[in-house]
Hints:
heterotrimer, A: alpha+beta, 8 helices, 4 strands, about 10% strand, elongated, B: alpha/beta, 7-stranded mixed β-sheet, 6-stranded mixed beta barrel, 30 helices
Amino acid sequence: xxxxxxxxxxxxxxxxxxxxxxxxxxxxxxxxxxxxxxxxxxxxxxxxxxxxxxxxxxxxxxxxxxxxxxxxxxxxxxxxxxxxxxxxxxxxxxxxxxxxxxxxxxxxxxxxxxxxxxxxxxxxxxxxxxxxxxxxxxxxxxxxxxxxxxxxxxxxxxxxxxxxxxxxxxxxxxxxxxxxx
Amino acid sequence: xxxxxxxxxxxxxxxxxxxxxxxxxxxxxxxxxxxxxxxxxxxxxxxxxxxxxxxxxxxxxxxxxxxxxxxxxxxxxxxxxxxxxxxxxxxxxxxxxxxxxxxxxxxxxxxxxxxxxxxxxxxxxxxxxxxxxxxxxxxxxxxxxxxxxxxxxxxxxxxxxxxxxxxxxxxxxxxxxxxxxxxxxxxxxxxxxxxxxxxxxxxxxxxxxxxxxxxxxxxxxxxxxxxxxxxxxxxxxxxxxxxxxxxxxxxxxxxxxxxxxxxxxxxxxxxxxxxxxxxxxxxxxxxxxxxxxxxxxxxxxxxxxxxxxxxxxxxxxxxxxxxxxxxxxxxxxxxxxxxxxxxxxxxxxxxxxxxxxxxxxxxxxxxxxxxxxxxxxxxxxxxxxxxxxxxxxxxxxxxxxxxxxxxxxxxxxxxxxxxxxxxxxxxxxxxxxxxxxxxxxxxxxxxxxxxxxxxxxxxxxxxxxxxxxxxxxxxxxxxxxxxxxxxxxxxxxxxxxxxxxxxxxxxxxxxxxxxxxxxxxxxxxxxxxxxxxxxxxxxxxxxxxxxxxxxxxxxxxxxxxxxxxxxxxxxxxxxxxxxxxxxxxxxxxxxxxxxxxxxxxxxxxxxxxxxxxxxxxxxxxxxxxxxxxxxxxxxxxxxxxxxxxxxxxxxxxxxxxxxxxxxxxxxxxxxxxxxxxxxxxxxxxxxxxxxxxxxxxxxxxxxxxxxxxxxxxxxxxxxxxxxxxxxxxxxxxxxxxxxxxxxxxxxxxxxxxxxxxxxxxxxxxxxxxxxxxxxxxxxxxxxxxxxxxxxxxxxxxxxxxxxxxxxxxxxxxxxxxxxxxxxxxxxxxxxxxxxxxxxxxxxxxxxxxxxxxxxxxxxxxxxxxxxxxxxxxxxxxxxxxxxxxxxx
Amino acid sequence: xxxxxxxxxxxxxxxxxxxxxxxxxxxxxxxxxxxxxxxxxxxxxxxxxxxxxxxxxxxxxxxxxxxxxxxxxxxxxxxxxxxxxxxxxxxxxxxxxxxxxxxxxxxxxxxxxxxxxxxxxxxxxxxxxxxxxxxxxxxxxxxxxxxxxxxxxxxxxxxxxxxxxxxxxxxxxxxxxxxxxxxxxxxxxxxxxxxxxxxxxxxxxxxxxxxxxxxxxxxxxxxxxxxxxxxxxxxxxxxxxxxxxxxxxxxxxxxxxxxxxxxxxxxxxxxxxxxxxxxxxxxxxxxxxxxxxxxxxxxxxxxxxxxxxxxxxxxxxxxxxxxxxxxxxxxxxxxxxxxxxxxxxxxxxxxxxxxxxxxxxxxxxxxxxxxxxxxxxxxxxxxxxxxxxxxxxxxxxxxxxxxxxxxxxxxxxxxxxxxxxxxxxxxxxxxxxx
Lengths: 181, 888, 434
């Protein structure tokens, strides 16, 4: 089914936001990626048509950004931050744990197609590392125990309550023990 | 011409003071005084991108080094391009660019003409790079273009050219950072216009031509600057050869009317001349078969037969047909031979197929047979109107001028074309149009009438015209009021307001140019449409204004020259009417020969006369009426009845196969001469190889025959002929750009506005009723594809790789309606005939229409009926209603 | 322990504060908007912001009011505001908190800015990975639209300001303002050559202002409490207001701390972030995100304001303070950042594109004990040849880690090379070949 049929209203809403069509390119690529887990060639062609672009114009944009998958990925895409700030607090160790538990290195997918692992650059969670992003969710201040629980939650329920909520760190303290109070 | 009011600024570069127009970039200002600042990404055709950082210079009062390619000059600026700091910067940038370069110069086709090599040499660049070089996997890119991304310096000139100049957008910089590479779309091979622009503009060996891959080193090649023989744009190109072998074609930036740009035909089509099927010896018919003979025997035979037949039937028993691909010199000698030595005006050329329609209209209305504008005026225009041009495919380089005018110089574009504005692998002029009228090929006239009606109804007529020529204005008004806006809407499906908006823009324009092309000129309304467009320009007061004009596009490279040389029944050289006593007198004096009085027969008339038995002999030079004309004309049958058919040809065509004598002709790659392009520029053709086999330039044949016939026209070389032409025709006094295009002749215009308009005004102002097409049928057009030109290009291996056979282009909706997939075979039937072909689905083809490239048209031509224009004698056979059925 | 009044983090520091419109309004939210729209002339708003001394919180620290003043006065067509929420500078995580915990504070700032510059459309360009943040903003926008703070005819003033969230898709460079505009136009995020500047030729070639999230979040407070109040905070006259510093690395309590500009790193680390995690001494710190050169314990008392940090040879940048304890390998640390820059170089300018790859490879070699002594000079020379030679500031940023670590901890490099030479691990390669 074509994206423009399946997500008609959403696409119309996206297109309505921009005075110049091409601006809708990244938002529409997200729609396509959500649909299949990666952006298929036919989706790129359809989006090109919708935005009056040539396919190479879509292709040059999509390949510039790291968040678009051009190939199918595992059901859960673990993205571990490896930048300096996380590295200072153990991101390499985190990668080791993941490797020990599910047997994959960055760039690999488990045989059951459940997990893919990537290393990524800074995700703006430097105060709460080591951390990783799984699909759309952040998991921060990871410990080995926490990782075990997350992996098991993902397997059983597809998500985990350990994911970050609206971010604040340090969390607000009761006024009585505020360090600045 | 717009007045140059750009203020100038004064600056110093390396201590030298230079005055340049405001807005000039430092790199360009430096070039003016001979200071070459090294660069990769800068190119005068492209917007500055400043990505290579090679052109860093010191500018006083600026803290950091600046890129000369993106910094505009400023009053009092002081630039230094050769200080130690600048030199170190250049060296260091070069070191970075070289870091990942494979240094495979020994096997690189760019070696010897590579900017990277040259700058490395200049800066004696050494590299401290000892790390692992980046390697891109080699991938197949396209049949004609090779990429070697390890050599790429990521300057993106190719990508920017493809977008900014060509408007094709087929190249994508893929990936990020040091892993950025140029690709098309995913793993797909390149699919585009194949203009070769990316190959030409690449400063290194990253994008090269596969046609000449590993064939040469630049210093081994001989170069000849000549003019492309494929269309009326008249592009200058440099043909490079090794011995007798055609290796490569390119065109230097700034060269010719094309400013160094080429299309697929020019860039990849050069192999036609060296096709193995070229005729290398004269052939003569013996016992029904054509056998090899010598020039002496062949010419003697022809001369004897000509004498005999002339004695029996007089000059009127002869006819001559010549291709608009020949040089001016050949066309001139040909008609002089026919008129002076044979004694007949039965002469025609391929210009008859359509170009003549526009020239007659111009003669009548503005008294000239040439453009009153140039390509430069097209660039400077503020309103451009395109009518039935399909410009990208027929006249791609004029198309680039239109693109530049619209994209870079903000001209408003009005298009009346049979095109859907869609994005696909080729550029589409309708995509750039501000007022697009999608009209099927046979109804172009309705679009023109829509604009005219809007001019009348909105009172956009120049008051001066209304006052001075009330009868004309009244006649036009009456004719345009004979139908209502509703009628027009019914006929075109277009709202009146669209016409009104466009007409207002046109009327408000200061520099308005109307370009028209084959789709209109080769149609039944080619002449009427041209006149009507001239009316449009006149009523709005544009026609005789500077920078304004009517610009018909010639299909063949020398259609314009063919007419100007008099290779056409009604015109003596200089487009003087053959029945004008004074002109006839002049040429009789010049040629010292009597000239025939009898009105000449045009192409189709000649064939009819041959059929009827009154025409006995024909010379056919480079034309192939058997394959080009619809069956209804019975060309083959007519030619078979001739007592003498002499063909001068490159190949043994369907027509040549019927000849009594076939003489091998030299192609434009093998001879000297001149071509006159569509805007009237006379340009030098130079040989790049020796004539193939025993072939000879066509003029030599006629000169030799004239001697054998005792009426010698003696020329030692083609230059002698040009000298004679210069004496005979104004406008040919100097080669290259004519100083000024001709002006509208006010007396002629006055004559037209007073009475010249009368004869057929009401007929040509009649709305064309849209053809009601029964279900299961399409309106099929017949026209030119970007990848071919006539039949000649179908001998070019490069172009055959791009388009190897004729396929019927249809809209996807129609394809779905007929349950067809790309490449399916269909049978097409019209009232005249039928054919079987494959289909190609193209969204730009409007629903209900289809078109077939005429280069592969032998079978297709049978589908069309032929109509002859009563005034211009142009045979039109370009549209037909066909039914379509899928076949296995 | 000094007391600092919280401004930006005040609401969210209240227990139970959810960031909803109701909560925000309870704390006086959108009062600045009511007080300003249609009551203070846009030019006066700009003047007030200029007077407050507010400088951009994204990294470059350009005075916000001055930036607004660059917009053409008489331009009739559309103008745009882009909120730069592409927070990607390693070490920085404040905007994420401001957006996810108190989105209306940011939105109010956006509408105020739109009003001041005459924009009717604002795009929040949020980095693609912040999915939660974009959802929170979308929700807040819907709330604000329903309440008449955003959209058509705001608060009955006849003024319009539409706000849209636009997600990036993973490219650090899109935090550079012109790359952000390219990306927002659906293209590759390549910085544009300047001039022209976004103020005249920005989004869709129209006059455009790009402001950071934290910058915009300050606006409601400046409008409510006056520019004089703001200008008195921090280290006037040049560094006014507070900064939300993001403290990361080897500290006990990493996190976001809002303090007046001009506090010292020592105060930030030892009084706010609880000191060093293993109580080891500080070996090095970065004061303003990955693009800022490393500093040493000798700089612990440098005041964290624009001028003082610059004078110390680094930059205040985005406010990301990363602290490293004794024992951390500086070559390793510099390489980690270099790898980041290599990964994120957009590839437009040759020196940065090729240079980042070169530097990473050489650094890896040195760290793997395959370095040679002349590599150190080559590194410095390459850094010199990249900095200042590129279109955007990325080129300057990417050389900071190597230049500064070589400056302060050269011996660590030398030791690695000596180890390599001692172990005879390097192969001699011909030098100076083309």
